[in-house]
Amino acid sequence: MRRSEPNPRWSKIGGMPPDWKRRSAQAARASQRGRQKMRSRFWQRFRTVTTLLLIVGVFGVSGAAVLTSPALSVRRVEVTGVAPLAPEERQFVQETVQIVPGTNLLRAPAERIARALRMQPWTEEVSVSRRLPNTLEIRLTPRMPAAALETADGWRWEVDSQGRVLRADRAALRLPVIYMATLQTAQPGQRVEHPALAAALEIVARSSGTNPLPLTKIEIDQNEELCLNMQGDVLIRLGHTEELIGKIELVKRIYAQDRAIGERVAAIDLRCPNAFSCTPRKAVANSPTSSSEDTASQSDPDTTGASPGSPRREGEPAGGR
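RE: above sequence
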């Protein structure tokens, strides 16, 4: 051990301090402890880095083996929720979920499939999940049609309860028709936000149930007034959307009391629900067109709710394009 040199300051005043040896020994021990800590810290870091490299190497080899293992190849694709779709839509789903043979389950393009299906107007929600060892599951929740929306150009489109256009109308479904004179045309994916259409869809929803109303068509004229066309050629004028719920409940009570009301009544005016009026069918059938002013007003298209909508093109189906 190197011996500490005497401090010149102490030499000038008569020699070394009395505890200079003790101080020298303490300094030597502190220096030795510092070197030991440095060596210990180095070897600790070395072991940590080595362990991490070994773990990464092991997991890298294992991950490569898993991602290339034939035991995890996709052998089955399960799709649910496509039954309400049109044939061409089911075909689109089938083509979208096609997987290249031999694709590893962990590498299956789940996000691409989900994104492609979510972009369709008839999709409400979709989830894609993997089920070991080799099954890909696609759960599709389609938007359900609530009515057939007929536009002024004569085409009919299926719409859901939120007014979103899904596809061309399928006549086999026999959906209630909503004719909207102020809407010139529509296209799939479009959401028609209009108070009168929202009211008409509310009528359709409330008309179903244990005792459904015999509703065939709802007409929305240029003045945005609603008229119900019931089975048996009964017209029910509701007018504007004010007091809509009360008017619907009144119609339900009328039909609950007499389901065959169409045999005697041709039209019911509920624009003022507290004082509504009816037009007897016999009076309409036997009265000449130029009789009294009251009879003429009941047969007038503006009074009965008939709409001057454009007729469907000859030879075209009700489902539109």
